[in-house]
Amino acid sequence: MQDTHISLAHGNGGRYMRELIEQLFARHLDNPLLNTQLDAARLPVIEGVPMMTTDGFTVQPLEFPGGNIGSLAIHGTVNDLAVAGAQPLYITLNAFIEEGLEIALLDRIIASLAKAAEEAGVAVVAGDTKVLRQGEGGGLYLATTGIGQQITDHLDMQKIKPGDQILVSGPVGDHGTAVMLAREQFGLRGNLISDSASVLPLTRAVINIPGLSFMRDPTRGGLASVMNEVHQATKLGISLQQEYIPINDAVNTVCEMLGYDPLYLACEGRVVAIVDPSDATQVLHAWKQQAAGQQAAIIGQITQQNYVSLKTPLGGERILEELEDDPLPRIC
Amino acid sequence: MQDTHISLAHGNGGRYMRELIEQLFARHLDNPLLNTQLDAARLPVIEGVPMMTTDGFTVQPLEFPGGNIGSLAIHGTVNDLAVAGAQPLYITLNAFIEEGLEIALLDRIIASLAKAAEEAGVAVVAGDTKVLRQGEGGGLYLATTGIGQQITDHLDMQKIKPGDQILVSGPVGDHGTAVMLAREQFGLRGNLISDSASVLPLTRAVINIPGLSFMRDPTRGGLASVMNEVHQATKLGISLQQEYIPINDAVNTVCEMLGYDPLYLACEGRVVAIVDPSDATQVLHAWKQQAAGQQAAIIGQITQQNYVSLKTPLGGERILEELEDDPLPRIC
């Protein structure tokens, strides 16, 4: 491709679009199932129960310490399938590209997306690109849909009961804080990197533990929002112990300075699990044997209260309300 | 929902987002497979070969005569599966919503999307919404992914051979022209409506005819671009007869006034087919028995030339080049 920036002609169905797809997207994403000449990909037979999920990605800036919108799009979709008890298999990709985007940047992003897909063992089997006029696009938006194969059927939110233990696989708020710092709008800099990663090693390590009833990756809205979703769905209470929740020092520092609560900030490579008390330490130990689970912790339990609360080390209790205002747009 | 317009809080993972999803999206799209509390939808077993496709939608204006971006998103994805020889089954939906979008408009669009899905016999099984800051979104973008079940395996571009007949199921260029008029930037008005529709009745009517080797819906880039794709893939030539190509008078008039070529304008409810000469009239008659196929026609044939050409009634010949410049951004 001779151009350095995306133009409207890259979206019109003609030669420029074909070259962009062939020379950038298909070059990175090449696999036996991806055929850019077909309207639909023909997939191998899916054994058993298919599971399907979809996500949009609008993170700003497009590149941040620890990843970019491309790797994030794969991790987000792979993780939704992983925590739902599925083995991710195939991904489709939509790219909404703003006129004027640097092609070298797009190339880095799609290369990173391809690498993340390969590492997670998924193939990108179909895609579409649209080009938006300058001023109508925000650089780049991605949408990914994933299909996988159910590998366990014992996850069920309705099994959650008082006394169940709540675990998290690692420190919370890294992604949200890293993206915030990457915007440089606060005059802050730091070494913090996003936790964006496939959680498959974490979910595979615990998926067959019978007391496990629920897993979720705490993305938009963070840990506190997942806890509120569980509360909404089960009508049970949740009690978290503040001192047990792993949070990196850099995240705490930035959040204190800017007035954010790390419990509401996005993670992109963590898992929250709810487990019968008899199996909680087994989940904890299984996670701690994983590189990504070194800081895993039991952080609280299900209660019969009608709210989500955080117990402080000094014995106080704070309600973790459902999020109302937006702390941070375009974080994922 | 008490709000009248989308705000950033509708995208943050908290209460406003939940209400938007529950009270607008889930209300219209309700079906037994859609569970907004889960990370991934659990689907019935797919018999045989799954086929998968994806599309982004950016049409402007969001509503146009004959449809809106919601119905268009369903038709586009259903049609890609239909022309590839699959029965569409499940759809995922991503919505990128710009801050400030009127909620009543979004409601009409999602209602229309739900109606189109029901008519095409597909269920929306998973979705995601993101809210973009004002000035970063162009109103609304949608991305849909569809999965279906292959119902024929005899479609194959590599079977196309010289002498094969080329058919179109109805007049070309209606969608592109209708959207262009809806923008009102040319000071023109007309009665023309988009052809946006599911092509399933058309594809089902001919899918078992053995001489059928190829079907495609001529969307972005229009009929001429599909012909160029066939030429690229097969290295065979294509000769179209201008007087046999059905084009509505209103489309011809507008295109003449504005200098567009209707052969390059998008359709969203037409099918192009390539058929062995012995079966061409069977395809034609099967289409003419369908409401949407009244104006179906045999419009040309495959040749041994190395180009795509249009023969005029006066005996002239014009090359239909691959599209270079963009005639019309955000048309689909």
What is shown here, in short?
With 332 residues, chain A is an alpha+beta fold. Chain A contains 8 helices and 14 strands.
Description:
2 copies of one chain form a homodimer. Chain A has helices at residues 15-29, 69-83, 103-120, 174-182, 200-206, 222-234, 249-258, 280-288; strands at residues 41-42, 50-57, 63-64, 67-68, 86-98, 123-132, 140-150, 165-168, 212-216, 237-241, 272-275, 297-303, 308-311, 317-319. Chain A is of the alpha+beta class and 332 residues long. Chain A has 2 domains: 8-150, 60s Ribosomal Protein L30, Chain: A; 157-319, Phosphoribosyl-aminoimidazole Synthetase, Chain A, domain 2 (Alpha-Beta Complex). A 7-stranded mixed beta sheet of chain A has the order 9-11-8-12-10-13-14. In chain A, a hairpin with a 2-residue loop joins strand 3 and strand 4 (67-68). The longest helix of chain A is centred in the middle third of the chain and has 18 residues, at 103-120. Chain A is globular, with a radius of gyration of 21 Å. The mean pLDDT of chain A is 94. At the A-B interface, helix 1, strand 1, strand 2, helix 2 and strand 5 of A face helix 1, strand 1, strand 2, helix 2 and strand 5 of B.
What is the strand and helix layout of this fold?
The structure is a homodimer of 332-residue chains.
Chain A: H1 15-29, E1 41-42, E2 50-57, E3 63-64, E4 67-68, H2 69-83, E5 86-98, H3 103-120, E6 123-132, E7 140-150, E8 165-168, H4 174-182, H5 200-206, E9 212-216, H6 222-234, E10 237-241, H7 249-258, E11 272-275, H8 280-288, E12 297-303, E13 308-311, E14 317-319
Parallel strand pairs in A: 5-6, 10-13
Antiparallel strand pairs in A: 2-7, 3-4, 5-7, 8-11, 8-12, 9-11, 10-12, 13-14
Helix pairs in contact in A: 1-3, 2-3
